Every structure is written in C-alpha cells, then in structure tokens.
From TrEMBL:
<dbReference type="InterPro" id="IPR044294">
    <property type="entry name" value="Lipase-like"/>
</dbReference>
<feature type="domain" description="DUF676">
    <location>
        <begin position="3"/>
        <end position="185"/>
    </location>
</feature>
<dbReference type="Pfam" id="PF05057">
    <property type="entry name" value="DUF676"/>
</dbReference>
<protein>
    <recommendedName>
        <fullName>DUF676 domain-containing protein</fullName>
    </recommendedName>
</protein>
<dbReference type="InterPro" id="IPR007751">
    <property type="entry name" value="DUF676_lipase-like"/>
</dbReference>
Length: 193
C-alpha cells in the first residue's frame, strides 16, 4: 500500500489491521516519505526495490496485490513494470492478484480541472518545476506518463503487460470535490475537463 503526497502510513492503519488478522502480509511502504519532489520514475523504482526486498524475505507468499492512493498509484504502476517478468507473467515471483488505484492522475493534470487555466504559464515556469511536476504537466523530457502507456524495453518497461498481469484491476475516481486530481485523469477519460 502506498499513500498520496499529503498522506501518511497511518492512513492505511485500518486496512493493515484487518489484513494482518489473516494470512496476509501488508507492506505499507515508507521508502518515499519526505521525497515529495522526486519524480514518478525515482519514487517508483524505490517502491519496486522495497517490494522486491519483501519478496526475498517472504518466499512462501504466492500472490501480490497493490493499493495506491493519489499519485502513489502512478508510483505503483511504475514499480510493477520494473518487477514484471515478461516470460513468466509474474511480478517478482508472485502471481499478480488485485490492483486498486484511487484518485491517481493517470493522464497527468495539465488538461484537467484548474490546471488547464495555467497552461500558458507552463513554459515560463518549466525551469522552476520539480521533476514530479514536470511529469504530471506532461512537459518532461520523453514524457514519462505517455511512455507508461506502452510496452517496450526501449521505453524502460513493460507497463501495459505488467498491469494486464493482475487478475483484477480497479480504478476509482472522485466525481466531485477533488481540486488536485480532477475526475477525468483518474477515470482515464480525457474528454472530461
């Protein structure tokens, strides 16, 4: 489980307590705490390493599920692409079971909600934007979020194949009252502004 930029590991305490009562191991990752300006790629790789270390310590586990809230959903998608074994269609020796992403900016934020009014300022502010912000505004070199819609060793990951490997995939979007991540991006609906 991975929380959003304003969240803490405590946000998942209820789910962790419920899951821990059975034969489930819960990793509420802390590797990206206080690294808010790093990009999706750097944070995703840290998360992948954290998950891989858990795999090494708990060889008896057979399946993996991922829950990501807000931008951590993108970090999770990036991480699973780097854990994915294309030949075995598994994630770090585990069968991919459930993928749940809540209110994540899957299509970036540039054309959605309040951000679309700032588009004229993006070229001016570009040097001042942190790595993550450039990625979310789709103005980073190589446009990472666009590459994350592809499958290619050249684009640094089997992004779609790794997501398809999950038995169940769910995206949730806030219909209203989400100032930062408008409905269109988490719902994969580019026509909703």
């Amino acid at each position: 489980m991975a929380h959003g930029p304003q969240g803490t590991v405590k946000d998942f305490s209820y789910a962790t307590d419920v899951a821990a009562s059975g034969e489930i191991l819960v990793l509420a990752s802390r590797v990206n705490t206080d690294k808010i300006h790093d990009g999706v790629d750097l944070r995703g790789l840290r998360l992948a390493k954290d998950i891989f270390e858990v795999v090494q310590r708990h060889r008896s586990l057979e399946t993996i599920s991922l829950v990501g809230s807000s931008i951590e959903g993108l970090y999770g998608c990036y991480a699973v692409a780097h854990l994915f074994d294309r030949r075995a269609e598994r994630l770090a020796d585990w069968v991919a079971d459930k993928l749940v992403i809540v209110a994540s900016s899957n299509l970036g934020v540039r054309q959605f909600g309040v951000y679309r009014f700032f588009q004229g300022m993006i070229p001016i502010a570009h040097p001042l934007l942190f790595h993550r912000a450039r990625q979310l505004f789709l103005c980073d070199d190589g446009c990472l979020l666009e590459r994350m819609t592809l499958d290619s060793a050249v684009s640094s990951g089997w992004f779609l194949s790794s997501l398809r490997a999950f038995r169940s995939r769910m995206l949730y979007a806030n219909v209203r009252n989400d100032f930062m991540v408008n409905y269109g991006s988490p719902a994969l609906d580019a026509y909703v502004k």
